[in-house]
Amino acid sequence: MLTRYIRAALHQAAYEILPGDEGFFGSIPGLEGVWANAPTLEKCREELEDALEDWLLFRLSRQLQIPPIGGIDLNIVSAA
Asked: pTM, whole model, 2 decimals?
């Protein structure tokens, strides 16, 4: 399920060419703080995936809300 979430999130990623031939910037709308920049588009995609994985692990470890993407909900529901 985690891999499916990451794939779905990366499909929503937006990339920009930075001014002055500085490389590329990528982010995932709705996931605050998940962004990357790198000299090539491919490296930017790799860095964005790493940033997303770190962001997810942090939020899961602290049981913080994670926005559902593509019908995939990673939020932990505790039994009452």
From this structure: 0.90
